[in-house]
Amino acid sequence: MSVGQGSPGVHAPPAGAQNAAGVTYTTVDESYFEARRLKRHARVWSLWALGVGAVISGHYSGWNLGLANGFGSMFFATIIIAIMYLGLTFSIAEMSPALPHTGGAYSFARTSMGPWAGYITGIAENIEFVLTPAVIVFFISSYLSAIFETAPAFQPVYWILCYALFVGLNVVGVELSFKVTVGVTLAALAVLGFFYVSVLLSGQFDFSRWALNIGADGAELQTGGGPFLPNGVIGILASLPFAVWLFLAIEQLPLAAEESHDPQRDMPKGIIAGILTLIASAFLVLFLNTSIAPGAAGLGKSGEPLLDGFRTLFGTDIAKILAAIAVIGLIASFHTIIFAFGRQIYSLSRAGYFPSALSVTHGERKTPYVALITGAVAGLLVMMIIWFSLGADAGGALIGGTLLNMAVAGAMLAYFMQGMSYVVLKTKFPHLQRPYNSPFGVAGAVTCMIIAAVTLVFQFTDAAFRAAVIGVAIYYAVMMAYFLIHGRHKLILSPEEEFALTKGEAEYKSY
């Protein structure tokens, strides 16, 4: 790693880089990276759990809001989004071992297209990873409110307690964090598996009666038998953001690259096993949860669809007990995405795109505690602003829907940029050592880009989602102004930056 000695200063990057990108680099000594070290722990099993655990809450709550457009709309939207994620994850499976940095998506775009593209991608992923746990903790509080029969006004207390507990677990150490991740992920899948088997054995499965209980006018049909696509193609497009919730955040695995013992070998195995697990569970929950009461019409506006399913199968009292166990699924994602935003903020700040103080790690435990606390405060602040400015009822609706769409909008831009990164890396860096090659190649990456772009455009053109996308655009404008005025002159030669500036020829180093 090329680092200067003595007091910080400014120097030019390798030939042409400063003029081409308009950025300058601050020289730091070894003590800078000593204060930002991470600890290696993860292997394939941990990475699989990290990917599946990050997403699994989407199989408990959130996806079901797309059923308001009819079962068929959600079914076709899920197929389309599953194709997008196959293109994305197999592209990442190739890029991540070739660029094994904790920066993940930012480092892919930075290497392939320069610092501005890296920053744009990093901001998109930052929006996704900071807002996604905010949405999840809202669903956790919905479940807990139903279980303990607490008033809606009590929900912010659940949010604060959950953030404090799971940020604390992530700060304690990477070993504990991954142990918790594996445990809660397996428990979350076990709860879903129990639910799937219970539906099939209950005798209450009736696809036509319940899954098709929305009429062409959007009204509930008491005897079912409604149209498969009550809203036609528009309904499919409207359901795309909610189908994303069945897979959102699987792409966080590369953020653990510098905490993995062998990222070149383990990362592809972990992410591919993860997406295949999630596709199987996604279609099971879509069919089985919807094919019992209250069906598509009821689940389309529910904050706890799995709990509704348990109520149907076992009655209210037993359902409460099962719902308490089911909260594990939401906790799995909440915990693992807190890990993700901690590493994502850490990597961008270590390289100077965010203030470098955010990347300091705990002296003994080597966890990015400043980034973890900062991300948690940011997500909680957004929730509190919505909640207290609009009131509990309106705020709850916005957090469950609009905030979800803000997270999806950030994700779609990040996916588009990662697909583009893959294409550019294929053409501009043919010499790059690739321990794994995607079987879908450029076609898979381009397909991912197209679907992500369509989803994002529809979010902007649909009045129901427009406010969320405008909110993302405002945040982008603020962050781009920060980088233009200040951030681009404070970059630091982190592992991602040196790898990019030497066009992949520098020996990879992590700290």
TrEMBL record:
User: How is this protein positioned relative to the membrane?
Assistant: Multi-pass membrane protein
Localization, UniProt: Cell membrane
Alphabetically list the UniProt keywords.
Cell membrane, Membrane, Transmembrane, Transmembrane helix
Q: Output the Gene Ontology terms for molecular function.
A: transmembrane transporter activity
Q: Which residues cross the membrane?
A: 44-62, 74-95, 116-144, 156-173, 180-201, 228-250, 271-298, 318-341, 369-390, 396-417, 438-458, 464-485
Q: State the Gene3D superfamilies in the record.
A: Amino acid/polyamine transporter I
Its predominant location is: membrane
Cellular component terms per the entry's GO annotation? plasma membrane
Instruction: Give the PANTHER family listed for this entry.
Output: AMINO ACID TRANSPORTER-RELATED, MEMBRANE PROTEIN
Please give the name of this protein: Amino acid permease
* Species the sequence originates in: Microvirga makkahensis
Which lineage ranks, top first, belong to the organism behind this chain?
A: Bacteria, Pseudomonadati, Pseudomonadota, Alphaproteobacteria, Hyphomicrobiales
